[in-house]
Amino acid sequence: MDALSLKKMVAKAALEYVQPGTVLGVGTGSTVDCFIDALAESGIQLKGAVSSSVRSEKKLREIGVPIVDMNDVESLSVYVDGADEVDPVNCLIKGGGGANTREKIVADISEKFVCIADQSKLVQVLGAFPLPVEVLPMARNAIARKLTALGGHVRLREGFTTDNGNAILDVSGLKITDPVAMEKVINHWPGVVTNGLFAIRRADVVLIATADGIKTL
Q1: In the sheet that 167-172 helps form, which strands lie side by side, from edge to edge?
Q2: 106-147 per-position pLDDT tens digit
Q3: Hey, which residues are catalytic here?
Q4: Distance from CA of residue 137 to its chain's centroid?
Q5: Residue 175 class from Cβ within 10 Å (0-12 exposed, 13-18 middle, 19+ buried)?
Q6: What is the DSSP string of 110-175?
Q7: What are phi and psi of 3, to 5 degrees?
Q8: I want to staple 60 with a disulfide (CB 3.0 to 4.6 A). Which of 9, 25, 65, 103 is the partner?
Q9: What is the pTM of this model?
Protein backbone atom coordinates (compact mmCIF):
# COMPACT_ATOMS: atom_id res chain seq x y z
CA MET A 1 0.00 0.00 0.00
CA ASP A 2 1.18 3.51 -0.74
CA ALA A 3 1.62 6.17 1.96
CA LEU A 4 -1.64 7.98 1.18
CA SER A 5 -3.65 4.76 1.43
CA LEU A 6 -2.11 4.02 4.83
CA LYS A 7 -2.91 7.53 6.04
CA LYS A 8 -6.52 7.22 4.93
CA MET A 9 -6.77 3.83 6.65
CA VAL A 10 -5.53 5.06 10.02
CA ALA A 11 -7.55 8.27 9.75
CA LYS A 12 -10.73 6.25 9.36
CA ALA A 13 -9.77 4.00 12.30
CA ALA A 14 -9.51 7.06 14.57
CA LEU A 15 -13.23 7.79 14.08
CA GLU A 16 -13.91 5.06 16.65
CA TYR A 17 -12.64 7.44 19.33
CA VAL A 18 -14.74 10.44 18.26
CA GLN A 19 -17.71 11.13 20.50
CA PRO A 20 -20.69 12.80 18.75
CA GLY A 21 -21.89 16.04 20.28
CA THR A 22 -18.56 16.90 21.90
CA VAL A 23 -15.78 19.39 21.25
CA LEU A 24 -12.93 17.50 19.60
CA GLY A 25 -9.24 18.36 19.67
CA VAL A 26 -7.78 18.23 16.16
CA GLY A 27 -4.11 18.45 15.24
CA THR A 28 -2.20 19.30 12.09
CA GLY A 29 -0.55 17.58 9.15
CA SER A 30 -1.21 15.40 6.14
CA THR A 31 -2.57 12.46 8.17
CA VAL A 32 -4.87 14.82 10.08
CA ASP A 33 -6.07 16.19 6.73
CA CYS A 34 -7.14 12.63 5.90
CA PHE A 35 -8.82 12.39 9.31
CA ILE A 36 -10.83 15.55 8.68
CA ASP A 37 -11.89 14.14 5.30
CA ALA A 38 -12.96 10.90 7.01
CA LEU A 39 -14.83 12.91 9.65
CA ALA A 40 -16.77 14.68 6.90
CA GLU A 41 -17.70 11.39 5.24
CA SER A 42 -18.72 9.78 8.54
CA GLY A 43 -21.62 12.12 9.22
CA ILE A 44 -20.59 12.40 12.89
CA GLN A 45 -21.97 15.66 14.30
CA LEU A 46 -19.67 17.58 16.62
CA LYS A 47 -20.40 20.49 18.91
CA GLY A 48 -17.14 21.98 17.66
CA ALA A 49 -13.39 21.55 17.50
CA VAL A 50 -10.31 23.09 19.08
CA SER A 51 -7.58 23.04 16.47
CA SER A 52 -3.82 23.37 16.73
CA SER A 53 -3.32 25.33 13.50
CA VAL A 54 -4.87 27.85 11.16
CA ARG A 55 -4.57 25.25 8.39
CA SER A 56 -6.72 22.70 10.22
CA GLU A 57 -9.19 25.36 11.34
CA LYS A 58 -9.79 26.28 7.71
CA LYS A 59 -10.34 22.66 6.69
CA LEU A 60 -12.69 22.03 9.62
CA ARG A 61 -14.78 25.09 8.80
CA GLU A 62 -15.06 23.86 5.22
CA ILE A 63 -16.76 20.67 6.42
CA GLY A 64 -19.08 22.57 8.75
CA VAL A 65 -17.38 22.03 12.12
CA PRO A 66 -17.47 25.16 14.32
CA ILE A 67 -14.10 26.29 15.70
CA VAL A 68 -14.01 26.77 19.47
CA ASP A 69 -11.52 28.99 21.30
CA MET A 70 -9.59 26.81 23.74
CA ASN A 71 -10.08 29.43 26.43
CA ASP A 72 -13.79 28.60 26.32
CA VAL A 73 -13.35 24.93 27.28
CA GLU A 74 -11.93 23.38 30.44
CA SER A 75 -10.97 20.07 28.88
CA LEU A 76 -11.34 17.91 25.79
CA SER A 77 -12.30 14.26 25.92
CA VAL A 78 -10.29 13.34 22.82
CA TYR A 79 -7.46 14.87 20.78
CA VAL A 80 -6.51 13.34 17.42
CA ASP A 81 -3.16 14.18 15.83
CA GLY A 82 -0.32 12.68 13.83
CA ALA A 83 3.39 12.35 14.53
CA ASP A 84 6.73 12.49 12.76
CA GLU A 85 8.21 9.72 14.93
CA VAL A 86 6.78 7.27 17.47
CA ASP A 87 8.86 5.19 19.87
CA PRO A 88 7.87 1.89 21.59
CA VAL A 89 6.41 3.65 24.65
CA ASN A 90 4.32 6.22 22.71
CA CYS A 91 6.73 9.13 23.05
CA LEU A 92 6.64 11.26 19.92
CA ILE A 93 8.45 13.82 17.85
CA LYS A 94 6.03 16.31 16.33
CA GLY A 95 6.35 19.66 14.63
CA GLY A 96 7.30 18.85 11.07
CA GLY A 97 4.51 21.22 10.10
CA GLY A 98 5.64 23.80 12.65
CA ALA A 99 2.59 23.58 14.93
CA ASN A 100 4.15 21.68 17.84
CA THR A 101 3.52 24.40 20.43
CA ARG A 102 -0.20 24.62 19.79
CA GLU A 103 -0.38 20.84 19.48
CA LYS A 104 1.24 20.47 22.89
CA ILE A 105 -1.21 22.95 24.43
CA VAL A 106 -4.23 21.09 23.05
CA ALA A 107 -2.80 17.71 24.10
CA ASP A 108 -2.30 19.01 27.63
CA ILE A 109 -6.01 19.66 28.22
CA SER A 110 -7.16 16.43 26.57
CA GLU A 111 -8.20 13.36 28.53
CA LYS A 112 -7.18 11.01 25.69
CA PHE A 113 -4.54 11.75 23.05
CA VAL A 114 -4.99 9.51 20.02
CA CYS A 115 -2.01 9.57 17.68
CA ILE A 116 -2.45 8.38 14.10
CA ALA A 117 0.50 7.42 11.91
CA ASP A 118 1.71 4.97 9.29
CA GLN A 119 4.31 2.28 9.94
CA SER A 120 7.17 4.40 8.56
CA LYS A 121 6.95 6.60 11.68
CA LEU A 122 7.80 3.80 14.12
CA VAL A 123 11.36 3.92 15.52
CA GLN A 124 13.23 2.29 18.38
CA VAL A 125 14.92 5.55 19.45
CA LEU A 126 13.68 9.04 18.64
CA GLY A 127 15.90 11.47 16.77
CA ALA A 128 16.26 10.38 13.16
CA PHE A 129 13.60 12.95 12.33
CA PRO A 130 14.97 16.44 13.12
CA LEU A 131 13.60 17.74 16.41
CA PRO A 132 11.71 21.04 15.91
CA VAL A 133 12.28 23.71 18.55
CA GLU A 134 10.13 26.83 18.46
CA VAL A 135 12.07 29.87 19.67
CA LEU A 136 11.53 33.59 20.09
CA PRO A 137 13.34 35.31 17.21
CA MET A 138 15.77 37.22 19.45
CA ALA A 139 16.93 33.96 21.09
CA ARG A 140 17.48 32.04 17.85
CA ASN A 141 21.29 32.02 17.84
CA ALA A 142 21.65 31.57 21.59
CA ILE A 143 19.42 28.51 21.54
CA ALA A 144 21.16 27.16 18.45
CA ARG A 145 24.47 27.22 20.34
CA LYS A 146 22.96 25.28 23.25
CA LEU A 147 21.46 22.68 20.92
CA THR A 148 24.82 22.29 19.19
CA ALA A 149 26.41 21.67 22.59
CA LEU A 150 23.98 18.78 23.06
CA GLY A 151 25.42 17.21 19.92
CA GLY A 152 22.78 18.39 17.50
CA HIS A 153 23.16 19.85 14.03
CA VAL A 154 20.92 22.91 13.94
CA ARG A 155 19.20 24.37 10.90
CA LEU A 156 16.91 27.39 10.87
CA ARG A 157 13.69 26.62 9.02
CA GLU A 158 14.16 29.29 6.37
CA GLY A 159 11.21 31.37 5.24
CA PHE A 160 8.95 29.89 7.92
CA THR A 161 7.13 31.61 10.77
CA THR A 162 4.87 29.72 13.17
CA ASP A 163 1.25 30.70 13.76
CA ASN A 164 2.62 32.27 16.97
CA GLY A 165 5.05 34.52 15.05
CA ASN A 166 8.20 32.63 16.02
CA ALA A 167 11.06 30.75 14.37
CA ILE A 168 11.70 26.99 14.20
CA LEU A 169 15.11 25.39 14.66
CA ASP A 170 15.31 21.83 13.29
CA VAL A 171 17.87 19.72 15.16
CA SER A 172 19.24 16.57 13.56
CA GLY A 173 21.84 14.13 14.85
CA LEU A 174 20.31 13.63 18.29
CA LYS A 175 19.83 10.13 19.69
CA ILE A 176 17.09 10.71 22.23
CA THR A 177 17.34 7.81 24.67
CA ASP A 178 15.63 9.74 27.51
CA PRO A 179 12.89 11.82 25.84
CA VAL A 180 11.41 13.12 29.11
CA ALA A 181 14.76 14.45 30.35
CA MET A 182 15.61 16.06 27.01
CA GLU A 183 12.18 17.67 26.72
CA LYS A 184 12.63 19.22 30.17
CA VAL A 185 16.18 20.45 29.51
CA ILE A 186 15.40 22.19 26.22
CA ASN A 187 12.14 23.72 27.46
CA HIS A 188 13.97 25.19 30.46
CA TRP A 189 16.13 27.47 28.31
CA PRO A 190 14.95 31.11 28.15
CA GLY A 191 13.75 31.88 24.65
CA VAL A 192 12.41 28.42 23.89
CA VAL A 193 8.65 28.36 23.46
CA THR A 194 8.57 24.58 23.37
CA ASN A 195 10.18 21.68 21.56
CA GLY A 196 8.64 18.88 19.52
CA LEU A 197 9.16 16.09 22.05
CA PHE A 198 5.86 14.74 23.37
CA ALA A 199 7.19 12.61 26.20
CA ILE A 200 5.93 14.27 29.39
CA ARG A 201 2.48 14.27 27.76
CA ARG A 202 2.82 11.34 25.41
CA ALA A 203 0.08 9.72 23.37
CA ASP A 204 -2.40 7.53 25.24
CA VAL A 205 -3.20 5.50 22.13
CA VAL A 206 -1.17 5.18 18.92
CA LEU A 207 -2.88 3.77 15.84
CA ILE A 208 -0.40 2.55 13.24
CA ALA A 209 -1.44 1.75 9.68
CA THR A 210 0.39 -1.24 8.18
CA ALA A 211 -0.06 -3.36 5.09
CA ASP A 212 -1.65 -5.93 7.42
CA GLY A 213 -4.14 -3.49 8.96
CA ILE A 214 -4.25 -1.24 12.01
CA LYS A 215 -2.02 -1.90 15.02
CA THR A 216 -2.81 -0.27 18.36
CA LEU A 217 0.00 0.69 20.75
Answers
A1: 153-156, 167-172, 131-135, 192-195
A2: 999 999 999 999 999 999 999 999 999 999 999 999 999 999
A3: 103
A4: 22
A5: exposed
A6: EEEEEEEEEGGGB-SSBTSSPEEEEE-GGGHHHHHHHHHHTT-EEEE-TT---TTS-EEEEEES--
A7: -60, -40
A8: 65
A9: 0.95
